[in-house]
Amino acid sequence: MSDEEIRQKRIKRLEALAAQNGASSRNASPAPQPSSEKTGSGSGAQRSTTASNASSQVQSRAQSPTPQAPQSPRADSPANGKPSSPAPAPTVSFEQWQDRTISEALRVSLSPVDEEKNGCIYLKGLAEDLEQEDGTKLLSVDAMDQVLWYRLTETKCLPAPFDYLWSSWTRAVNARKLVKAKDPERERKLQVLNDIQSFCLRYTALITTTDMVSADTPQQTADRLVAKAYSGSGPWDFLAAVVEMAAAEETLIDFLNPVMTRLSQSLAKVTYSGDYKAYLLTLETILSSKAVAGIFTKLDGFAIPDNASAPTIASTTLLGPFLALSPLDQSCRGKNFPSPDVLSPRDIQRYSSDIESEYHVVLDRLFQMCNRIVRGSVESRMDLMRYFGKILDMNHKRVAIHVTPDQVSPDGFMFNITYVLVKLSEPFSDMFGAKMDKINLEYFRHKDCVIDISDETKIQADQEAADQYFASKAEDESNFITHAFFLTVGYVHYGNGGLIQQQSTLKRLIEGHRDKLARLELELERWKGTSQEPVVRSVLDRLKNYSVELKSSKLTVDSVLYDRVVQKLLVNFTIFTFMVLIRAAEPAHTYPVKGQDLKLPFPEEAPMPFRTLPEYAMESGLNYLLFLLRYMPQEVVHGSIDKVLVFCVTFLTNTSYVKNPYLKSKLVEFLFFGALENMQGGPGFMVHLFDTDPVSLEHLLHALMKFYIEVEQTGTSSQFYDKFNSRHYISRVIKVIWANNRYRDKLEKESKEDVHFFVQFVALLLNDATYLFDESLAKLAEIHNLQKEVPAIAPADEDQAAAERRQNLASAERQATSYMQLTNESVDLLQLFTSAIPKAFSTPEIVDRLAAMMDYNLAALVGPKCGTLKVQNPEKYFFNPRELLSVLCEVYLNLQKEEQFMKAVARDGRSFDPRNFERAHSILSKWALKTADKLDQWKTLTDKAVRIKNEDEAGELELGEIPDEFLDPLMFTLMEEPVILPSSKVTIDLGTIKSHLLNDPKDPFNRAPLKIEDVVPNTELKQQIKDFKKQRREEFLKAKEAKQNADEGAGDEANRMDTD
User: Which end of the chain is more exposed for a tag (fewer CB within 10 A), N or C?
Assistant: First the structure.
């Protein structure tokens, strides 16, 4: 086919396309706005692929209003120069002005002279066609279609057609400035310039969506955009105008699909350490159009395919590469801190600041882009929520202990989405709860829920109850606030929580590699000079390099996690989440109500919306705040901490609402941190709230005591050790709040109104004190012995037996340190409680055990074997024997007026020894541990205990041998209140069974469940015992009287004999 035939074919094609589009009249303004009824659509939408023919253009222009001047291009645009010719003089006709303006804007001419003179391209074919049609030799807007067609198809555009159209559009924009305000032809001239701009925009969309110009593919157009952005002279005004035009003509999706696909695929190959900014700027410009934002989620590649895997989402979906931009990128985070081993703290801070500064910009730009999508349309908003929801569902392994990168999405990708969602939630997550009622607490029952929690552990409900509840689906649609809130809660857990988990993993790996390096360096010494030396050295070098990468990665993760700007947002959202959880648990779902305190406790049965919430809704927030309290406490301290206090008290008061015992222990742990003194020795950051918050004043002490009891049985394999940790936290908090009389008054009231509850608490406190005291002293004795055998510094030739003893010493020291701290807390708590309500400690269920524990530990501290507790550096183990003795003796003095306690002390046959009391008096006096008045009281207490002991010994003589049926089967003492157990039918003393049930709610003889209310008084046996005691007393008195008479008679006889 000849060139002429090809040209004729193209002309016919142009005429056909023009006829096809001639029916639609178009606004030719520089940046047309899409109508509300028309947005870009995908399949089935007819493309507008070329400009209208001349007649339709004329009709359109005749109906067009006067256009507004478009925004001028950037100053650094390559085509920013003014047209070379001045504004046409009045003597120049409109047709001549139009010809010259089109020629200068498009750099084309119908004359070969202009090509040589002005650098315009001579369109020979067009010139011949126009001359044949009407003999004209002037360019006009009626021929604009043909002009651009010939220019783009017949002559090569350098560097690319996109650049040519952009420059032409820019020249037309600049030419508008030269049209004088008083020019009589101003309106017509502006319309010509509008048409030039409009045709440039249409042809830009045409070359992007078709293969009309073989020299420029849609992918190359995207590349040109990025290249221009790199150069700092991006065509952003032009691109925005193209986008608006494509939206108006319903070709937006066709225009964006190839461009965005290319941008996303290209960015996926760029790392965070590379030049990614051009891609962000390009996408920002595209999304600046609301029309684009409204249909962006309909573009190819936005949705996640069903066969996608978590690790690939960040690189294969349309938004993925943008959301993955992060210093946490695996390709660069190991290099962010060069030579981390030799970096000073100042250097580390400098590198961290640089990372944070750049990352803030990226995060904010990502948020702005996602925010535009959210505001683009209802459809785009929901599509973005579904996108985030599916990513969340695919990343449940992120918080697992053992997880590899090929199982989950990248850290930076997940953290970026977390940030975006927290920012999207910021408008409604205020501390006043003004919009909290917009959050649908039954979200997970709705069909439009974008998160699958079917395999998540629920706060309280079991799997069967949750499945039954969720089986009934709600039909109404959830609002954006609800979607955003629950998505953010999930991402705080899997995104931010996953990053915290990653930090822990890196710490563990670094420590492990440190040990490996130490061992390999020793191995290298062994293999020096042998053939194995290069092999060992090579392995050692690889380990060193990997260790450097791990440390750099750890510092990078630290930079993100310790970023105050980001963490402040996360803290606020976490506290808001706690408020929502309280609202969900509250029966009326109205919390917070201004001016009203929370009414506690809640009903025993928790509402189903709360019971079926995922456990991570509570767990992630507590873990996160506890993490910050260790590393960035100021971020928590400066937050709305009063809301957290109410949250902790609420669920410690209603512990049955939370199934997981570890979650409940975290509530106590948070209060513990709040009670700790600050670095300057001042009160903890929550102490002022303990003393002023109405909910705390009313419910905190009872809640702590309640959990102290409950933690005895957690149902976990580690419950024995877990309970001591929780009780340690509780003891510290109680010691802090004890200074407030309101709490002491509450304690006294508690001991009178709920005797069983209080006795149960005291019994467990005694159990702990007894066990911990015993273990502590035993470990100290072990340390005492081992320190004699193990030298302080290990010799180089230490044998295996000596090394084992050194290991045993280290183990005993660790245990002694832990046990001793817990012992101190338990004894301090006992001292506080006995000082406030001594009578409560004289109940039959606990008084004997308390006295036995006290006597035993007094003997250990001052008795003959106390020398075994002498160890080197006792403060290392928190062991202060004098202080411990002083506190123990204070407990005795607190209870000295309680007759039952004094009797129990004196009757303790195992440990009571008056000599121990005398030695204690001597130590207290020697070291001035007590005042003179206290020392006098101690002497009086000792004398009283000795007197009771003597009286009891006399009483035992009265009773003589006691029949077995009168003895308690567990304690082997004479029963005072015999009762019959309902299932085993065994008779036991009431005080003994009460004491047993405090620790174990089962019959001690057959393990059947037992309540104290079920026991039956054995009145007959009680009467027999009473009669037995009366009879024996009478017999004893008779025998005593007879003995006295006999003694007196013997004395008289002796006197007579002496007289005789």
Answer: C
